[in-house]
Fold this sequence. Notes:
The structure holds two protein chains of two kinds. By secondary structure, chain A is α/β, with parallel strands linked by helices. Chain A has 14 helices and four strands.
Amino acid sequence: MKIFLSFVRKEFQHLFRDRKSMLILLGLPVMMMLIFGFALSSEVKNSSVAILDYSKDEMTLRVIDRIDQSQYFTVTKNLNSESQIEEVFKKGEARLVVIFPQNFNDDLLHTNAAQVRLIGDASDPNTSNIVINYASAIIRDFQNEIFGLQKLPYEIKVETRMLYNPQLKSSYNFVPGVMTLILMLLGAMMTSVSIVKEKEMGTMEILLVSPMKPLMVVISKAIPYLVLCFVDLILILLMAVFVLDMPIAGSLPLLLAESLLFILTTLSLGLLISSIVDSQQVAMFISLVGFLMPALVFSGFMFPIENMPKPLQIVSNIVPTKWYYSIVSSIMVKGLGFGFIIKQTVILLGMTLVFLAAAIKKFKVRLA
Amino acid sequence: MAEVKVRNISKTYEKGTVQALKNIEFEVASGELFGLIGPDGAGKTTLFRLLTTLLVPDEGSATVAGFDIVTDLWDIRKIVGYMPGRFSLYQDLSVEENLNFFATVFNTTVAENYHLIKDIYVQLEPFKHRLAGKLSGGMKQKLALCCALVHEPKVLFLDEPTTGVDPVSRKEFWDMLDLLKKKGITIVVSTPYMDEASRCDRIALIQKGEILEIDTLPAILEKHERPLFAIRAKDRYRLIQEVRAYEETVSCYAFGEENHVVLKNDLEGETEFKAYLKDKGFEGLSFSRIAPNIEDVFIKLMLEQETHA
């Protein structure tokens, strides 16, 4: 036990003295959260709108005002002719152009039907979709307000409700995603690199010619990264709650326990890499290309797995991040209890055991 | 009693295509300072790795302190001290931290075995808070020796401990090995420096995975006593060419400032040889008879090995 503790202490010394690594380990999650939170937001805020108004009557002004006042849009330009529309898009001065035909007010009041044309810039299909939807919703709202008292003979009212994330905040999507990625990256890569480093530096040669059992070497190497991953996890959660205003809907202890399990999965994956590989570069390459890419693609964080072709959907099942991502979004966003994530938990547990067993079996007690 | 016994060991790499060791056989007595001497690539490191249980031989067997290197690896790992050829301590830990760490790994403390490392450690003490990576070459080797000694090993394996170390530190290092020998520790040490042979009780000359000769240094020199000529001239390159062209010449190689020359009939052809060289008209020609040193013996044995192969 004393040997074990002194080994763990040594690992912490390695870690704390490597300032650059420490900076990456603690800075990366903060940076990713900030980037995803503020820079890479897929929400549409303050989109610039250009108006082409042929009526210029009281009603169109009220609609324009309504659009301008919403937090999603800012009216930046008034156009005079249709020929200017393309110019505005080409210069990137607007994401949306709203066109009111002549006699808008009269048509609306007398024939009960007036037309508005919305033109979006579909060179970015997702954004233009969102923009058009927002704008339609605003106009619909306005219409309801005016005709609220009047009863129409027939009417199908569509009411949509976005469950769990009524404001469609993207943080609900990316916080679990960032957690998954960071833990995967740090757990697998840093652990594997730290063990392979001992091989590269030749210190493994001395450690092998000592009474120390390989299992102890491996486990004590993983412990500092376990602690560090946990620190990062707490950091991400704190930022999610206090900086990005994202509440944790479910039970925090359950979330932490499940995260601990996932950290163990990534650590054992890292150990497995390190017992197979002999150089830091190869270890890094395997963890980045071999694990981070699939982790990104198959976690369901960026691309919905349901949209993938069948073979890829099957492949996604062996990627641990998919299961953890599903666990985190279940607990954090939907507030589900343990009963709903038993399957994912069991799968992660199984993967951890398999990785760990393989890592120990593959660990060489000799040099070759 | 033999502390290290090696029986007919062979080892190949790359699926048998590279022969690292071929039928190696020797014994090291308890308390002996045994030197393995040979150039880079001779197989010294492989031999050390076999004896420290890091590798398994293809053929043959060996024991260290009575334990088999294949089956009793955990027993051997408790009682040997190993210093690999490359500096292999933690560069980002201080001198003191390294030493304490290796003491703990072997379930002991620095205080418990301080008497063993005292003589070496006093030199390191002023730098004990310095990171191991920032030490000079000689200091690094002393620290590595301390770390290999701190658990009071019965057998010490030192793989090229003096390579890349300045001459003064080299001498100091060997003085320390003498002290350790007096404390009864069996030491197996390898070196590419022939002049260090005189510091060992017995030496094994090793080349291309084979042992050429094992004995004490004086015995080896006596056995291969063959007078040779040390000659020098201003135009060294032409001198070597001409001497090699001479039909009685067995070998001629550069040795420091001089060329060492061995003739077929040793000294009998001396007058003809001198006349031959005078005819060639060398400037500043000097000519003397010498007794071979260990390097001469090594080159002789090496040439013999090549002609056998």
